[in-house]
Amino acid sequence: MLLLLLLLLLMLLLLLLLLRLLLLLLLLLLLLPQLLLIVIVASVFVTLAFCPIIFYIFQTVNFVHFSTVQALIYRRYCLEQFGEQICNSLNSEENKDKLDQVQAGASKWIKVTYMPRRPAKSTNSLSIFF
Question: Is pLDDT larger for residue 11 or for residue 29?
Fold first, then answer.
């Protein structure tokens, strides 16, 4: 009799466990579309939030690169034309004409450095595009 009661109790526990598992599975099936929607929205948000960050980093690097190269060209042109003593005091009133010369010469070098180069004229059929 006791064994039968234990067996019945065990079956009841198994039945409750199975019922709980079925309820959990049903709940998961009902919530699965919402979970998928949440995952899709989250992935789109991450993509949209990540792309501007990469673009911002790219633009920052480009601006830093351009200004650094511009300053180096400016300084080198000044040193080649006038020497270190005049370049260190280039912004003073007595060196106003030299400042203009350095700015004009350095701007030519900057233009040469950053101007896009055109391809050479060719005789093939794609030459109309260049």
Answer: 11
